[in-house]
Specification:
The chain is of the alpha+beta class. It is 19% helix and 14% strand. The chain has 2 domains: 64 residues, no CATH class; 61 residues, no CATH class. The chain contains 3 helices and 5 strands. The C terminus is likely disordered.
Length: 134
């Protein structure tokens, strides 16, 4: 079954699972259909295009507050890509980052102000395209 990003609520927590999540918590996760084991074999978890998914606790985190499931489900993979790209840049505090194509999810996340806010926009440079960050 395809699908990698999921959002929903915790329906059940397996016995002996150590987590700070509780029944009913809104969560997001990135589903890895095959999770490799140290012995070279793999556990199959299926994909995210399912009504229910079973995942290791370490693959699940709380969803952002006040965000619907459809929006939250776009965060895991896009957020990981944005984070890895920004880590590779190793920008110093106060550095300027020009993001082209910031209308997409990864571009918007890269252009955010680092505090979870919206990208800062320079309207002098793109007065007709207010939806793009620079």
């Amino acid at each position: 079954m395809p699908g990698q990003d999921v959002a929903g609520t915790v329906d059940e927590i397996g016995p002996g699972t150590v987590t700070d999540l509780a029944y009913g918590d809104p969560v997001i996760a990135m589903v890895l259909p095959f999770l490799p084991r140290p012995d070279g074999t793999a556990d199959y978890f299926g994909g995210g295009y399912a009504k229910h998914v079973v995942l290791p606790a370490g693959s699940v985190t709380r969803a952002p507050r006040d965000v619907d499931h459809a929006t939250a489900s776009a965060l895991p993979l896009n957020g990981l890509i944005a984070l890895l790209n920004l880590d590779q840049l190793a920008l110093e505090p106060g550095a300027v980052l020009a993001v082209t194509g910031a209308a997409g999810a990864v571009g918007r996340l890269c252009g955010a102000d680092g505090r979870g806010g919206r990208p800062r926009r320079d309207r002098r440079r793109c007065p007709r395209r207010r939806d793009h960050g620079a």
